[in-house]
Design a protein that fits this description.
2 copies of one chain form a homodimer.
Chain A: E1 2-6, H1 10-20, E2 26-32, E3 48-50, E4 63-66, H2 73-81, E5 86-89, H3 97-111, E6 114-116, H4 125-136, E7 140-146, E8 149-150, H5 152-159, E9 164-173, H6 175-182, H7 191-194, E10 195-203, H8 209-220, E11 230-235, H9 238-244, E12 250-260, E13 266-276, H10 279-299, E14 304-306, H11 321-327
Helix pairs in contact in A: 1-10, 2-3
Chain lengths: 329, 329
């Protein structure tokens, strides 16, 4: 299977690594908005093209993995490139999934291509686990916890505060809340009860104690991002940030508890969790497995937009049905 | 969707409970090898038929859930009834799945019916999680732990020992082994290192200390069942057994750890776990969700034998694609 990458940031580089771990996949093209001659990729011998020339290279790629951002890139790129390629993206603005789905579905159908959106771990593997658990336990309650992990959006929000040179924000699930959920008691939890936020902030040179106090106050009172959480702010040096906070770890928990039995007398806990040293490397690994599924679906004549909910699990595997039944069932 | 139950034991009764929790499902027939007039079921107004008369009632059932045992019932029943019904079973003899699949596939194809075998949690949800995790992390290692839970097979093995009136055996995962796996160190674990076995045994009246010593020795040295494990044997009264060990709890953990990154520098842990007050009630709940999928596949013209690997997750849900994308993705 010949894979193309559109956008060579953290996610694009992760896809490049994941392809290397899947012998049936080959990276055949990277598309960039930058000057292609300025881009140095890790895989030897793979051409880098300007995204404007993508149409000319459509025949070199079986599935194009679109590695842009959800805010402005993907709503435009995924429908556009679904006219030329089978495509897959990691669109993660949950509230806008229906409209993104409709746009991609129309484009992919019209072109006879197969597309899959919102792939990764949330949306993605977490969504799948929510669906399976809901179908198995119709009478129950869902909980999703994130972390411990770096939130890029929250880190960026801190960086926009005046006087901040760099920052890293960790989202941390509250252990007592996890324990309460696992007990089966189906607690109602507020935003504050579920997660705490821990910030590591580097101030500009010459910052005073008054600057620290102001930045800490601005962080803790920031609406949507921090105001509803118990937030800790630590001021550290650039050296400490680079030494101790260079990674992009993440993870989380999807838990559903529910009742079975004639009189609902039995408690059940279904839990799925991830602990990831690198969020983009794992997301990319999920996407490459689903790229295999997109290629198979296209080869079976399916067109239009799909999500992880539509894909038979066997389509993710390079092994045959006989092999997975014999070894994994 | 009209569901029939074949075999009214623990699993059949669990299916009856699960149907009650799914408003789009209706129990329309129970088939038994016993005298139908002797069988009292919980759902009012549902006919009980002798299994010998099943053919005459095929039109009353959309999906037949076959609730027999894997040792001798299912290898015979599932292919036989796949000639008359869309069927689903919980065949769990892992080593014989390929031959069972082939027999059911041939029968279902010939009759134009849809069948699904080996449904439940292991095989079933655990298998799915093994498959997904293997596809996402091609370079890694799988671990499955069971328990804490009652093993019917091991309890039965103890009951067959001379002088034993009743017994309950719990399989318990070793916490240190779980911790070692979750660390990502990919340990090689022996059978003994992964699980312990705890037995509660009621002896016949008048048993002596010598009887106790003999029974304990026979249990601990029993090949396949106990010899490879650290086993604890507790002698208790019938009253204690009935008071403290009446339930059939179970559960377990499927964990895959693996590497991502250009130089495999990132560790990842994917974990799925279940904690179930009643093993048969949960297994039944999984089966009823998959019965919905079998009915949909049949309505789309699919025939032959399927497993959980072949079923698009959306087919398990009573909700539409739009609804699950909007609320669960």
């Amino acid at each position: 299977m010949r894979i193309g990458i559109l956008g060579y940031g953290n996610l694009g580089r992760g896809v490049e690594c994941a392809i290397r771990q899947n012998p049936d996949c080959e990276l055949t093209a990277v598309f960039t908005r930058r000057d292609p001659s300025s881009l140095k990729i890790q895989t030897p011998g793979v051409p880098v093209y300007n995204v404007a020339d993508a149409a000319a290279h459509a025949s070199e790629v079986d599935v194009l993995i679109i590695c842009g951002g959800s805010a402005t890139d993907l709503p435009k790129q995924t429908p556009e490139f679904a006219k030329l390629f089978n495509v897959i993206d990691s669109f993660d603005t949950h509230a806008r999934i229906p409209e993104h789905f409709a746009a991609v579905d129309a484009a992919a159908h019209a072109a006879g291509n197969c597309a899959l959106i919102s792939c990764g771990w949330d949306p993605g593997m977490f969504s799948l686990n929510r669906l399976y658990a809901n179908c198995i336990l119709p009478e129950g309650k869902d909980y999703t916890f994130w972390g411990k992990g770096v939130s890029q959006g929250h880190s960026d929000a801190i960086r926009r505060i005046e006087g901040v040179r760099d920052a890293r924000q960790y989202t941390i699930p509250v252990q007592e809340a996890l324990d309460a959920v696992r007990s089966g008691s189906q607690p109602e939890l507020t935003t504050r009860q579920k997660h705490t936020r821990e910030c590591f902030v580097v101030l500009n040179d010459g910052a005073t104690d008054a600057d620290k106090a102001r930045v800490e106050k601005e962080i803790k009172e920031m609406p949507n991002y921090f105001a509803d959480y118990d937030t800790t702010v630590n001021f550290i040096s650039m050296e400490e940030l680079q030494r101790d906070h260079a990674g992009i770890p993440h993870g989380g928990f999807v838990i559903r508890t529910g009742k079975t039995g004639w009189n609902r007398e039995f408690d059940n806990v279904i839990e799925y969790s991830l602990k990831l040293d690198s969020n983009p490397a794992f997301t990319s690994s999920v996407i490459v497995a689903y790229a295999r599924a997109v290629f198979r679906m296209k080869n079976e004549g399916m067109t239009g937009c799909k999500t992880v909910f539509d894909v038979p699990p066997a389509y993710l595997s390079p092994l045959s049905g006989e092999e997975i039944r014999a070894h994994l069932l």
